[in-house]
Design brief:
Length: 67
């Protein structure tokens, strides 16, 4: 059970990080064409945050299914 609890904490932390990255990308888009050169950087960071979140969710689901 401890592994599941720890993974759930990790998922929650990553959800917060992904939401913050999404908002940063959204804010950047609203301000275009200002800071247009940052699009690739911010989009990459957002992509990475959601990829990590997705992997953590899949790991959590595997842990829950193995009980």
């Amino acid at each position: 059970m401890s592994d599941i609890v720890e993974q759930l904490k990790k998922v929650r932390k990553l959800q917060s990080r992904a939401a913050a990255a999404k908002m940063e990308l959204h804010d950047l888009a609203e301000d275009l064409p200002i800071n247009w050169a940052r699009i690739k950087t911010i989009a990459g960071e957002t992509f990475d945050a959601f990829a990590e979140l997705n992997a953590a969710k899949e790991e959590l689901a595997a842990l829950e299914n193995s009980r």
